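Methods, example record. To illustrate the input and output format used throughout this study, we show the complete record for aldehyde dehydrogenase (NAD(+)). The sequence lines were provided to the predictor; the line carrying structure tokens was produced by it.
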Amino acid sequence: MTTAPVEYDKLFIGGRWTAPSGSEVVEIVSPVTEQIVGRVPQAGPEDVDRAVSAARAAFDHGPWPRLPMAERMAVVARIRELLAARHQELAELVSLQNGSPMLFSVRGQALSAVGAFGAALAAAEGFEQEEERTGTGGPVLVRREPVGVVAAVTPWNVPQLTIAAKLAPALLTGCTVVLKPAAETPLDANWLAELCAEAGLPEGVLSVVTGGRETGAALVAHPGIDKIAFTGSVAAGKAVMAAAAEQLTRVSLELGGKSAAILLDDADLTRALPAIVAGTCAANSGQACVALTRVLVHSSRYEAVAAALGQAFAGLRVGDPADPRTVVGPMVSRAQQQRNLDWIEIGKKEGATVLTGGGVPEGRTTGWYVAPTLLGDVTNDMRVAREEIFGPVVCLIRYETDDEAVAIANDSAYGLSGAVFSAAPERAARLARRIRTGTISVNGFRLDLAAPFGGFKSSGIGREFGPEGLSAYVEYQTVNLPQPEAPATS
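The corresponding predicted structure is encoded as:
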């Protein structure tokens, strides 16, 4: 893995590298070594203005929104091809910034972004820009127009996947984009900007403004923005929505989760438990909004599941993300590490039992590590069961009946993901339909890039991926066509 510092002294504005308006920089610190691994400029309000102006000019006067869909698809396909060819380089760059284990980073960071571009291209194949219908008063033409200038604000945990989820549909529908990556992971965003230019994306269509919260706040409040596409915390999402309200800016939000995995009394544990491990601690070291952080177990099987899952968590290899055997890497920052440790202590004070983990792994004096932790004897009214922890900390909760399991799963402010396990798939599917969540898996755990993804309740507004993901970047225009003339009578 590359360890030399990666430094940018310019901002990618409208397709060109330009000097920032100020001298402040953002330092990227390795979660493994705690050393600086990169620096980027802190984009100020003037830089945001320049980026939005470039995007506005490209949208209002440039060729991109006016190209046939097939021509835009060709450029996006080229971006996907370059991503696929250089996915190992991308995986290493993401891991350098956020500590994602390479075991996850290759598939979950880099190849997932490739897949998201591919799935968006597939959805665009049947995405009609115009459709003639028979209206109540005559023929109508329904047109899909690109929404305009998009502010894409993305998080640090899966930066390239969340960028792809916004950039691919925005570009395909003819929008222009100003991308604001997280302060912890700006290097891969700049890397992608260079790749997009190489793929032939016209000037002005993409800008990247790097920086912290101030940069993001200036972008989402900018009057030149037509749509905000945001992924992040609920608190930040509320702030984005409030800023959007001032301008009536269109907004889509993909926020947090506290998802439930329900083990029915007949579940095959040899199949269910590996899926739960994959959906919790092994999912980017637990730093995933879709993580199955509440495991609901029928009381008759509670002890067996507690023992088996605790043993599985204890056996996960924690260490250097560059080691291909590592399953759990560090938290992204010291603050995130401390947040996890604090939540474990809160859980213990509430009456939860630490079945495995519960602190910093032995011997890890450098790097921001948290041991995979399973909390037993959790009830759904405890804070650890209700609030998003965002790390390798999982709650084990008993239930007695299927109805109670559904009630517990739905008793949450969130509704993003989930899973149901049963020896009878049809039984699991029936129960899955009763869970108020945006995505739920039967006898497994996955995110399908061809299907709509998003949340109920506080987990967000709108959907990404699939045809629904493309629809989020268009406005609908209705053209009332004239009635056909009646044939002349003799």
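Annotations derived from this record:
The chain has 15 helices and 21 strands.
The mean pLDDT is 96.
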